[in-house]
Amino acid sequence: MERHRISQDLLYAIRTGQEYGACMAALAELPLTEFVPPSESQDFKKAFWLNLYNAFVLVMLKQNPESYRNRNRFFSQKTIRLRPFTVSLDDLEHGVLRRGAWKWGMGYVKNPFPGAFARTFMLDRLDFRIHFALNCGAASCPPIAYYEPHELDAQLNLAMQNYLEAECCYDAAANTVTIPKLFSWYWGDFGGRRRIGQLLEGQNSIPQNAQTSL
């Protein structure tokens, strides 16, 4: 097992129906800093956490499919063992990838008490494209991909383009585009409605000056 690839190896194993217990055991037994050292690049860390989040969504669904009925508990329960921490999917997403953002703050409110795990591993910068890469298990979520540090920028751009193309619906008669609920959950991460409009125009998802609607 190559330690620097463990999150990708775990995701690959669970997606392809292979044995993944060794990866789970290693993450629980070895210090987390051995897999994601502080000295690593931001692209490495971002890819690591994206892969790990997507992997553990699949692991949890495989181990207990019924747990997804209570979605708030599914994402908030601290069952993921990453030595020396036991964390939740929310901790991975909001604590690390979203840099200590409050889950219900629409991207405008920070968690005043993010905890040691988030303080230790949160990324230096928020990249709104993570929202097109995280798969929460719902049908409308982005497809699951493996993210590589040296290809991450291109991969995230492609994930964003594919998601917007699939989920944005333009009504030419009304000159409005219906955008995914994803944007309303994280307005602040995207920079607000105006910046979202500029993003959609830049990606050719909507014509210039079209109105957006949820």
Mean pLDDT equals 90
Give the spatial strand order of the biggest sheet. Answer: 3-4-5
Rounded to the nearest angstrom, the radius of gyration is 18 Å
Distance between the termini: 45 Å
Beta fraction of the residues? 5-15%
Shape call:
globular
Structural class: mainly alpha
The ordered string of helix (H) and strand (E) elements is HHHHEEHHHEEHHHE
Query: How many helical elements?
Result: 10
Sheet with the most strands, sense and barrel status: 3 strands, mixed
pLDDT < 50 stretches: none
**Helical amount among residues, as a percent range?**
40-55%
> How many individual β-strands?
5
Descriptive notes:
The chain has 214 residues and is mainly alpha-helical. It has 10 helices and 5 strands, in the order ααααββαααββαααβ. Strand 1 and strand 2 form a beta hairpin. The model has no long low-confidence stretch (mean pLDDT 90).
Describe the structure using short key phrases:
214 residues; mainly alpha; single chain; 10 helices; two-stranded antiparallel sheet
What's this model, at a glance?
With about 210 residues, the chain is mainly alpha-helical. It has helices at about 5-15, 20-30, 40-65, 70-75, 90-95, 115-120, 150-165, 180-185, 185-190, 190-200, and strands spanning about 80, 85, 170, 175-180, 210-214.
Annotate the secondary structure layout.
Elements: H1 6-16, H2 21-29, H3 42-63, H4 71-76, E1 80-82, E2 85-87, H5 89-97, H6 115-121, H7 152-167, E3 169-171, E4 176-178, H8 181-185, H9 187-190, H10 192-202, E5 211-213
